[in-house]
Amino acid sequence: MKSRIPIPLRKLIEDKQSVKNKKQQEDLNQSENPNSSKTKNQNQNPVTSQNRSKDSKNHQTKLISPDLQYNIDHIKKTLGNSSDIVIRDFQAGKNGEIKLGIVYTDGLTDSASIQDLILDTLMVQIRNSDSDVAVPDCFELIKSHTLPVGGIVEITEFQKLFNHVLSGDTMLLMDGSPKGLALGSRGWVDRGVQEPSSQTVVRGPKDGFTETLRTNTALIRRRIKDPNLWLETKQIGEKTQTDVAIMYLKGVANDKTVSELQSRLNRINIDAILESGYIEELIQDEVYTPFPTVYNTERPDAVAAAILEGRIAIMVDGTPFVLIVPALMVHFFQSSEDYYQRADIATLIRVLRYLSFFLALLTPSLYVAVSTFHQEMLPTPLLISLASQREGVPFPAFVEAMLMEVVFEILREAGVRMPRAIGSSISIVGALVIGQAAVEAGFVSATMVIIVSLTAICSFVFPANSMASAFRMLRFLFMILAATFGLYGIILGLIVMVLHLNSLRSFGLPYLAPNAPFILQDQKDNIIRMPHWSLLKRPRLISKNDTDRGDVSSPKPPS
Q: Which tens digit of pLDDT belongs to each residue from 145-158?
């Protein structure tokens, strides 16, 4: 069979031939005296025998040894002879003079590529070729001419070796060489691209991020085909070695924001990163606040739009939720669907979201304040109706509202944690049955059931669940202020909340921008969404390098 491997140069330098003869003599001496082989390897390897006896935590400082058997033994010892680590040693060459070994993790690699591209090439094609391969030159020959593998990385340290093996790559080691080759063979089973479950839309793309980092980056590359879309990846987590990538548009994203994000990621020193929520808590500007300062989404179109505005995406391997920074409060009231519909419809929906914000936050506290301290503000017929409904209720309005809100939060949490097939049914039936039974038993009034239901419905309007959770927490605080000081307490709480929002920053940007500070240019995409032909400037505070989006005039009828 004709080999695909080119024949190397037959003019060998005399020094290389002497090295070959010396190596053969050393192999002969080692086979005759195993004890001297052990001493010899200790002299050649910079790792002393004392370091070899240490536990696997010290493998980060060790270098790969020229002794193949020592490398295999060290890998087995460090990984605890784990059953999913496959180690295969074999011989290659016409006469089997090349001793090789491969190491990979079962379940994280593509078995077909290992069989066809690695083992078949090294064990069959080299043996059937007419090449006169010298052992000292074999490593470079295999790396440069033999293996038909896309990604090949040269490794000299055990730390990088374990990182590649446990990430799904195949490690190739050769006897007599203090280096190894990490061959790209990742091929585990993933969930596949599906519709996002947390941020659904009526009109728009139906694909969502997955738990595989490379799939997520491909979904963004598919939408932004620009060479300035840069991707930087690093590993965070001493134990997990989780791949964390940042993606941004060079020349559009603010260079200071990019540098600040890289600095914050480099300062993270933790043993495990299991989800993007770990990164969110470790890089956010303000810790003690209920309001999120880092946006998260599992929609690729939302991330692509944010990158085009000049923001930065943070992707973590193992989770479908991608982080976006900087994140301002106005972003949590916007949905991807706002830009897929007509401008007038999108504006109406945004107004409804802001109205729902105030209803979800203040409706229970206003009821408590008015019914407890300010009954004179109600019309007489309404006051008589409320008084008749509360007749026989043993609790004050504050206890009544707090009880119903706590019960509803319990039902909502139960609906989320229960199996999907029955979770929604349990939450709806539970709310109806408990609410009706509580009214009939006289524990709560019918008005309170209506108020709690309205509050719950308004809290589901927000596109971002993280912002809705913040309002859920603040709702209880406003009810306590209303029960203590009435409407004065609610006004005091609103003043404190606005002052707190003004003090927040997201990577140095004011959290309430473009409202405070007021930026007239950015009001076109705030509460009111203007048509696309008028949105020709990027947000001024986010992108300071390239603010122009294009030059498009308003459509006109043909003359």
A: 778 887 888 999 99
pLDDT for position 421: 62
Q: 3-class DSSP state for residue 437? A: helix
- Whether omega for the bond prior to residue 300 falls within 30 degrees of 0, making it cis, is no
Alpha helices in 45-143 (DSSP H): 49-52, 68-78, 111-113, 120, 126-128, 135-141
Q: Are 94 and 3 in contact (CB under 8 A)?
A: no
Nearest to 79, CA basis, from 47, 102, 105, 53: 105
Task: Give the Cα separation of 484 and 53 in Å (integer).
Answer: 68
| Complete DSSP assignment for 255-303 | HHHHHHHHHHHHT---S---SHHHHHHHH-S-SS-SS-SSEEES-HHHH
For the chain, the structural domain boundaries read 30-183, 213-327, 343-510
Residue 463 preceded by cis peptide, ω within 30: no
Residue found by looking up tokens 């986010």 in the block: 542
Pairing of strands 322-325, 312-316: antiparallel
pLDDT value of residue 235: 93
Beta strand residue intervals within 55-207, DSSP E: 85-92, 98-105, 152-155, 170-174, 180-183
DSSP 8-state assignment for residue 548: B
Please count the CA atoms within 13 angstroms of the CA of 469 that sit on its side-chain side: 8
Q: What does residue 372 show for φ and ψ, rounded to 5 degrees?
A: -100, -45
Which residues, other chains included, contact 9 with Cβ-Cβ below 8 Å and sequence gap of 6+?
A: none
Q: Is 98 exposed, middle or buried (0-12, 13-18, 19+ CB in 10 A)?
A: buried
Start-to-end C-alpha separation, the chain: 73
Round to whole Å and give the CA distance between 185 and 152.
Answer: 10
pLDDT tens-digit profile of 226-244?
A: 999 999 999 999 999 999 9
Task: Decide: 121 and 110 in contact? Cβ < 8 Å.
Answer: no
d(CA 188, CA 509): 40
Q: Where residue 39 falls among pLDDT bands split at 50, 70, 90?
A: very low
pTM of the model as a whole: 0.81
Hey, what are 409's tokens? 């939060």
Exposed, middle or buried: residue 312 (CB in 10 Å: 0-12, 13-18, 19+)? buried
Residue from 280, 302, 282, 300 nearest 292 by CA: 280
